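Reply to dn_fold:

You asked what the input looked like. This is it:
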Amino acid sequence: MSEVVLVVVAHADDEALGCGGTMAKYALEGSKVHVVFLTNGVSARLESSQTDVDFRHQASKKAAQVLGVNTVTQLNFPDNATDTIPILDIIKKIEMIGEKLKPTIVLTHHKHDLNIDHQQCHKAVLTAFRPMPSKEVHTILAFEVASSTEWNFDSRNMFAPNVYFDISSTYAKKIKALEIYSKEMRPFPHARSIDAIQAKACVNGTTIGVKQAEAFQLVWSIK
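and this is what came back:
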């Protein structure tokens, strides 16, 4: 069944880290895939420049091509400071995009990621796509992002996956997209290294008996 998949993330590279293989899988199956970035992902860093912003933006477009994404929308909310603005501003932007694209499946951050932008993104998505008669969305899934999700050590709110996508056929695309984000990757044993990403994909895969998989936590689904 063809879907319209909307991936809403805080920063460019979150999509490849969290669900790049799943995005590519949907695209190969004929579904439309769209991505929204809330911030530029770099301006909160010390000594960041417009050159860094432009590089990240160009990387996001190249990664989108690899993953089969149809459209990329870059918003301009403050990086690592989305909690300093009214969340309603974020919700309204996402709602406008949703009205235009009419997604059926939405993928976004886990509610309790360490990163504040991830948390705000999750909250805004849930409000923007609350289940109403006029909405086409039937499923919202939350994914894990290396070096954010696993660093929330509150055992009461840790990521608990219960939905898995076999990405054995698209894993190479996920890695290629991450290699485009070379400035964001780190050497092993950092959680955001290619080796660590591979290990996670393999562990997720063996959980369901395949080579590589991406894990999600079901937020809600209407069938």
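The beta strands are 4-9, 32-39, 71-77, 105-109, 139-143, 163-166, 213-221.
Hope that clears it up.
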